[in-house]
Amino acid sequence: MSFFAHRDQTVQFAAQPDFDYEIRCVIGAAHEGAAVIGEVLAATASIRPHDHAGWYEAWRELAERSSRSAAKTQQEGQLASAADAYLRASAYFGVAVNALSALDRPDDLLRTFRAQSAAWEAFLTCVDVESERARITIDSGEVTGWLFRSPANAAAENRHTLVVVNGSDGSLASVWASAAAPALRRGLDVLVFDGPGQQSDLFERGGRFRPDWEHVLTPIYDWLAAKEDRDPARVALLGISQGGYWVARALAFEHRFAAAVLDPGVVDVAASWEQHIPRSLLVALERGDDDRFDQEMAIGMKFSPTTARTWSFRARPYGTQGYAATLRAVRQYSVADVVPQIRTPMLIASPEGEQFWPGQSERLAELAPTVSTLLPFTASEGAGGHCEPLARPLFAERAFAWLDEQLAGSGS
User: Fold this and answer.
1) The pLDDT of residue 409
2) CA-to-CA distance for 93 and 117, rounded, in angstroms?
3) How far apart are CA 257 and CA 260, in angstroms?
4) What is the DSSP letter of 344?
5) Is 385 left (phi over 0), alpha (psi -120 to 50) or beta?
6) Do 166 and 194 form a contact (C-beta atoms < 8 A)?
7) Which residues 6+ apart lie within 8 Å of 62 measured at CB?
8) SS3 label, residue 55
């Protein structure tokens, strides 16, 4: 029983579906320098299905090797090479962090995450892109991230900005490869950050997710709009994975963003959890029989300790205890009732074979027909699966062409 991965692809990189999908995501980032395809395939080739310890060690060792190479080239003054290697190291450490979800090794989690963060910070010192550390106050604390200035449009005033909203567990290195780097090449400045319950907020500060992301993205918009070199009418959003929910939720209440890209659209976050739970148990939950739900879930988890640990890892950002309490918390992450309030143009990616939220991009577009444009991706063009992992350049071409049109039509 796998909660978070499924495969219906013809090309297979690993026999186990969640391993296979992770490899797809990593090698898909190679186009932006966040992976070397050969070393990834070599490092993972001998890992057997369900060998979660071997899976973690393979990524940790690959990340450490990349870090050592980066440090050496940095000392030699080869900053471009060092930036490449640090970016790969951070991305590989990010996979290792997620690999720990299946292992009972809590002491390794913070240590591995800090190695991931150190590689990311080192990348920023070497990469030839101007950046500013962002510290933005929200009602529950502080959002931290980086605002990158596009070298393709260095002298521009009234700059256009893309705010990238990450998913539930992605690293900043993966966000760089997936969205920031292609946006910067196209003349957009880019803000990336860890929001409530994401990455640094979760691991370093014990932060938790929150469903009401208008209280996150409104202060971010205000922070950007207050800058003298920003055009407040040309600030756009891009939501990746579960970020598709957070962006849609915020847009129902915050109408000043010029446009938004959702990859994919997410109406009900809980759907990705509930598709793996027997219908009889969901009926018990709906009847309020939480004790039965918890008891039967616990019995089922005894037969799969790996699944039990993965559930606990995924539940951690929601700040809940117990299976029923967790699923009830996740069910709060729905925009079904507020989507009609959205007035911002949305481009909604709809990849064939979407395994986590099938059909939800279409549902979101149906709920907001006047502001939605559905963007299909197909398996025949190599763009199937959640977030089109092997076709990120194709996604960038189409998404940024649409975004350019929207920003060009936004009046100051």
Assistant:
1) 81
2) 9
3) 8
4) S
5) left
6) yes
7) 39, 40, 43, 92
8) helix
Dist CA 111 CA 97 (whole Å):
9
**CA-closest candidate to residue 239, choices 253, 260, 267:** 260
Q: What is the pLDDT of residues 168-204, one digit of tens each?
A: 999 999 999 999 999 999 999 999 999 999 999 999 9
Q: Which two tokens stand for residue 269?
A: 């976050």
Q: From the centroid of its chain, how far is CA 182? A: 16
The list of the chain residues with pLDDT below 50 reads 1-9, 412
Decide: helix, strand or coil at residue 208. Answer: coil
R_g over Cα of the chain: 21
CB 146 within 8 A of CB 166: no
In 150-277, the DSSP E strands lie at 159-165, 189-194, 230-240, 259-263
The dihedral built from the CA positions of residue 379, 385, 387 and 391, taken in this order, carries a sign that is: negative
Distance CA 295, CA 280 (A): 13
Contact 387, 263 (CB under 8 A): yes
Q: Sign of the CA dihedral 189, 240, 203, 213?
A: positive
Would you state the pLDDT for residue 140?
87
Interior CA angle at 64 toward 60 and 68, to 5°? 175
Our CA angle for 17, 239, 230, nearest 5°, is: 150
Taking the complete model, does pTM exceed 0.85, yes or no? Answer: yes
